[in-house]
Amino acid sequence: MKKLLLIVPSLHQGGLEKVCAATARLMQPYFDVQIAIFDSRSIAYDIKGIPTADLHLPSRPDKIGKVINVIKRGFKLRSLMKREHIDIAYSFGPTANLANIASGGKAEKWFGIRSYMDMGNPKQIRLFCRCADRVICCSETICREVQEKYRCDKAVTLQNPFDMQEVKALSEREEAELPWSDGRILISMGREDVVKGFWHLIKSFSLVHAKLPDTKLMIIGKGEFLPYRELAGKLGLDDVVYFTGLKKNPYPYLRKGSLYVLTSYYEGFPNAMVEAMSMGLPVIATDCMTGPREILEDKYGILIPNMSPEENFDPQNITEEEKNLAREIINLLEDQDKTEHYRTMAVKRAGDYTAESYIERIRNWAEER
Question: Which of 171, 275, 286, 340 qualifies as a FRET site for 310, CA 20 to 30 Å off?
Fold first, then answer.
């Protein structure tokens, strides 16, 4: 049985982190799996029973500190790989990829590109292509760009795995604690991050709620969301916008939704959106650089044009793009047949991203060398 080491900066809530934890669980029957983590504080995902090495080298904000971290992480990884006789070292995201490179050694090196934001550093991408045995891209769009722009024949696509039965079971394990007992709930999920465009969502929702007073908005994810809370308050939405904070099991909250809305202007492969689809939530999503178009294909959900990346928390300034999103939400919620159509299509599409196909691709790649 080959030894597979998964390298990840942390296992806080996030798409990259979630896929790493899922990969570890899915690969256990086929590989001797271990995880190397730079900082094991605040682990949000279930890695029980998976050997995990904490390198105790969390991120540092200064440039010199970052360089020193890469060297130290590489040294510790080299020792770990040599001691454990690792065959494949698969790293998730740029910082983990750099440490994987710095580790040297004989292990086969797989580098994961997990977001289109990673493509903003051409020097790093060239380095990854040069040093990797395989460059694993989470979307077809990213893979195609790496292949064409960097002439990298090592790039492959590996879309994230989803277990619909597990999501359903987790959604029924407990009851969501909500501040409301009725109404139609719009849901979005993600950490507090400018790339998620949540200010667009809140301002659009103000128009939706004015037209459909029974609607509510719930944002699930880690963060204080202070400017977003302030924006909601200025728009008179304090009682109908709810920030849940970090939830290790967000699925009972998703189960309460009537519609999932994604307003990101950058994504890799949006896990939360597919999870919402697996639970029968119709989707409206921005046509951002990667992810939604590839998943929705103009038939499994509704795509709207990508939205401005410039933060704007002025409650008096509701833009045309925000008005357009509001119109799409209202049109969908007012058309029951359309809503049911997209519920059905969402579940159908989510079923295409099976764990079985994910496992098969990794096992095949492992046998190629």
Answer: 275
